Amino acid sequence: MKILPEISRTLSEYLLIPGLTTEDCTPDNVDVGAPLVRHRVGEEPGIRVATPMVSAIMQAVSSPTLAVALAQVGGLSFIHQNQRVEDQAADVLSVKRHKAGFRTSEVTVAPTTPLGEVSRQLADTEQGVAVVTRSGEADGAFLGIISLDDFHLERHGASETAGNRMRGRDGLVTAPATVSLSEANELIWKHHLDVLPVIEDDRVVSLVLKRDYQAHKTYHRATVDGEKRLRVGAGINSRDFKDRIPALVEAGADVLCLDSSDGYSVYQARTVEFARETYGDDVHVGAGNVVDGRAFRYLADAGAAFVKVGIGGGAICTTRAQKGIGRGQASALLDVVEARDAYAQETGVYVPLCCDGGLLNDSHMAMALAMGADFIMLGRYFARLDESPSRKLQIGGQWYKEYWGEGSRRAQNAARYGQRGQMVFEEGVDGYVPYAGSLYDNVERTRAKLTSTMISCGSTNLRDFHRDAVLVPVSAESFKQTGAEVQLRQPTIDSGE
Ligand code: RVP
User: In this protein, which residues make up the domain named CBS (predicted)?
Assistant: First the structure.
């Protein structure tokens, strides 16, 4: 037995001391971008994020809808692994179908499809335009397009066919698959188009919509791959990885992450080694969670793409009470950061750190990044938002969204907790979090706060922030003084109302 001399501390036990703010420290100059995967020191990583926020590998959090929104604003989601391999791969594929500015047609019909059916499918998928192919299949020969502007059910009748109202291929402006987004937009404006079909081998590979033009301008930070498709991550476990990894790779997952409450295990090393032996450097597998330097070193040596830090701090987590394992997030992070930096110095390889769980407000995020984390994984934060998959409901006049832990009875994620079959005991709870609106607004606000903190500390990028941040532990007494001391007249912006 050994007792570590330092007390286990949380992120709220520290404050940042401002550094010199110079003329360079303007919001436009601050870059909060971060590496996501291991790389040689001084070289560019294979994947970066412009917004250092990723969504937790949880049923209540990372759906395809949330993954698309988060990638659009520069972060990344990890589709949860507590589902059948085929379902998870389908989720990944549906995110990868979103190309920044290019979109896969969600509705394809045949020329014989009745307008009533076209209208129903467009409404179901919230789309305004359908592709018409000879077979009615997405990979069928392209015949034309039909949009809500091309017909009216009352005027043309629900049984009239799409072929009679579509805009035929001959009269359409189209583009080849090699077209860039700016060229596509040029064509749209020049020819007054609302939609530009992109064609390869007589098939529609994507559509560029005029109404997405503004969106693309807005999402200039989007996390995209070399083909401008949105990036997405996926959770895996150390049990069925030989089936799950190939299916996720095939579906186009950009990065994988072992989903476990305690990642310091030979099973994690074997999973990472399997991926490296099978795919070399092409497939990135993050590992964790860990709370000390030994565990970091073990997973980094095994080839982990990044290492996730945090045990027991999650908003829905009861692991510390149930099993007595864990460590305050600040202490865990500081220990692992030291090991990460020593590893980089010794081997020339930088293994990014993800701070996972227990970030209760935006200042915790700044604190974790100041301490040396490269990016942050959040569950509760994203669960509160419109884009999360959970139910929104009203309780006592207030809006909430459901949020449940992967260790809860509801989630039954036995693989994450090293249990077999039905879970024998729970390590998480099932509850509600106050609804907080749209992901786009919330992430923008969080970025603004982080930028403002970095400006106060005199840093214009996260590398400098890691190096120059000065932190101070706070006493219990001064900790009490961080909140507003008056009765509020109206809700704050952050309460999501
Ligand atoms: P939070 O952001 O505080 O909601 O924490 C999310 C993290 O909590 C997840 O990324 C995961 O590491 C952990 N988690 C998920 N489920 C449970 C549980 O049921 N105990 N914990």
Answer: 166-223
Is residue 165 part of the annotated active site? The answer reads no
- Residue ranges of the chain that CATH labels 3.20.20.70: 11-99+222-392+442-481
Q: Give me the architecture of the 104-209 domain, per CATH.
A: Roll (3.10)
Contact 25, 455 (CB under 8 A): yes
Q: How many angstroms separate the CA atoms of 182 and 180, rounded? A: 5
Average pLDDT for 373-379 = 98
Cβ atoms < 10 Å from Cβ of 23 = 6
Residue whose token pair is 């998959």: 389
Q: Which two tokens stand for residue 245?
A: 């990894």
Closest CA to 51 of 447, 491, 379, 365: 447
Structure tokens at 494: 């952050």
Write out the H or E segment, with its range, that includes residue 52: none
Pairing of strands 167-168, 175-176: unpaired
User: 268-309 pLDDT, tens per residue?
Assistant: 999 999 999 999 999 999 999 999 999 999 999 999 999 999
Identify the CATH homologous superfamily for domain 11-99+222-392+442-481.
Aldolase class I (3.20.20.70)
Say whether 235 sits in a helix, a strand or coil. Answer: strand
Q: 148 with 121: CB under 8 angstroms? A: no
Residue 497: what pLDDT? 45
Residue 259 and residue 238: Cα distance in Å, rounded?
A: 8
* Beta strand spans in 248-391 (E): 255-258, 285-290, 307-309, 349-350, 353-356, 375-378
User: In the predicted model, is pLDDT for residue 496 greater than 60?
Assistant: no
Retrieve residue 66's tokens: 């949330």
pTM: 0.86
What are the two backbone dihedrals, phi and then psi, of residue 212, each rounded to the nearest 5 degrees? -85, -10
Task: Give yes or no for residue 157 having a pLDDT over 50.
Answer: yes
> pLDDT-based confidence at 482, cuts 50/70/90?
low
Output the CA 15–ligand 1 centroid distance in Å.
Answer: 24
Mean pLDDT of 84-112: 89
Q: Where in the chain is the domain with CATH 3.10.580.10?
A: 104-209
Integer Cα distance of 254 and 160 in angstroms: 44
Query: Of 66, 317, 361, which is best to mutate to test ligand 1, by the most ligand atoms within 8 angstroms of its C-beta?
Result: 317
Q: Which amino acid is at 132?
A: V
124 vs 117, 120, 189, 212, 414, CA distance in Å?
10, 6, 29, 19, 35
CA atoms within 13 A on the CB side of 389: 18
Q: What is the ipTM of this complex?
A: 0.99
Closest C-alpha to 96, from 122, 109, 77, 82? 77
Q: Give the number of other CB atoms < 10 A from CB of residue 182.
A: 9
- Ligand 1 neighbours, Cβ below 6 Å, are 56, 58, 289, 314-317, 319, 356-359, 377-381, 405-408, 427-428
H helix count then E strand count, the chain: 17, 26
